[in-house]
Request: fold
Amino acid sequence: MTIFAERDPTLIPSDPLMLLADIERRLDRLLPAENERDCVGLAMREGALAPGKRIRPVLLIMAAQDLGYRDDAGGLLDFACAIEMVHAASLILDDIPCMDDAELRRGRPTIHRQFGEPVAILAAVALLSRAFGVIAQADGISSQAKTQAVAELSHAVGIQGLVQGQFRDLTEGGQPRSADAIQLTNHYKTSALFSAAMQMAAVVAGAPLESREKLHRFALDLGQAFQLLDDLCDGLNDTGKDAHQDAGKSTLVNMLGSKVVEKRLRDHLQRADRQLASACDSGYATRHFVQAWFDKKLATVS
Amino acid sequence: MTIFAERDPTLIPSDPLMLLADIERRLDRLLPAENERDCVGLAMREGALAPGKRIRPVLLIMAAQDLGYRDDAGGLLDFACAIEMVHAASLILDDIPCMDDAELRRGRPTIHRQFGEPVAILAAVALLSRAFGVIAQADGISSQAKTQAVAELSHAVGIQGLVQGQFRDLTEGGQPRSADAIQLTNHYKTSALFSAAMQMAAVVAGAPLESREKLHRFALDLGQAFQLLDDLCDGLNDTGKDAHQDAGKSTLVNMLGSKVVEKRLRDHLQRADRQLASACDSGYATRHFVQAWFDKKLATVS
Reply:
């Protein structure tokens, strides 16, 4: 079953698996070298290199390519790794005892369970600051694009982004809240970083403001869809995370039921696809990837 | 008693108190607006705006001015605020229960005691990421200088900077360690951020590589002097921090006694001053400021 109406079957999309391997190889090189005496470095590596979907960096690269950018010097790959480092840092912090106190992440014990809470917090801080440094030192990208990327990423992490999402989830997640309030929290938790990834792709590719706005709206809908999928998957055993972590939390699945949520998810995806199609006219790799990715995941929950 | 041999009494240094007021006014505007419902924003404000020495941002501005830079657009002030935000974030994290578990900072209850541990951690992350965003959006500074500043700050925060210093302090502070090991920890804890401040001043002012290297060496010695002063002051009641927090820690004061440490401190300051004098030939404000600042502080411990 496919979600999107139009697509051109003659176009061969970039291979996401090859991209994923490129990202992981580069991440490995951008992180501190493996050294058994350096716990914080090991925790950074474990947090960022443990098997993950890498959906944010893959989307960043594909979108830039769909906007016509060719990454001859490797700077785009570095931007993608920066996004993944920020995501990894946010997962480490989400899991610590005073936040969600989670035991499992990406199929392994959480970072604080492996290295202790102080090292987990320091590794998250080091990953975050490394992300900004990686952007600043990316090859083949103009200083202007880099400063715009830093500004976008800073916004997505801070009080209008991941930090706000985590705070709202912590303070409101256990209480009754409206569907709008949940959607707003999901915006901060998920859409904000997707938007930063898309804006970073756009500034690298030198996309016009109009495309940037469309990519922003794409990211907002994609983030909502992504969070709804995450909620639908809670309770399945193959997520690599603590199962039933949302039990007792006021999620849309608990409030509206999974059928309604799945319908909402598909609506978000359709809107996301329309924005993406309109923003990128040089390629369709991102659309193919998003479609295939959600098709596969939704097949497991339907 | 003065530490430095040469100075030109005809030169009037910039007024550090006026600079401090400028920095605090600008910090106030760069932080989230005061909103009682936004705990994380309030914690960020409290962490960054509570009375502090502001020595890092003052030095950054003075050094850039001594290198000939005139801050017509306000970007230098923003760079200075970014350094202070990073410093404030590091203090918040140093104090949390799983790190130093401190009760007092800057004369007030620590941030986690005022707002709880999760909010303290989120406020620190938000301050850190805001610092990078403030650099990226500073007015009147070239994108190239901004990306260099981001790279310097990223380095000073991460695994080769504050994070490493905090980790070493946590894991080695309670054990016997060599004077060299203590000096290395102090390098990460203190010198790294002083160096970033000096490099940010230098890139804004377009200083040549030779000056940048001298400013780096100035920062290394200044950082050591600063940390030794901090150790000498531990136990005094007017630091605004928990008194006797270093009791049982292997500091140089505990190892060598305060007389030897004071001699070392003065040696570091003299070396620092020589580097600074050689790096900045357009002004002496930074030298005056450092001298006056240490003279005043040392008078309280001698």
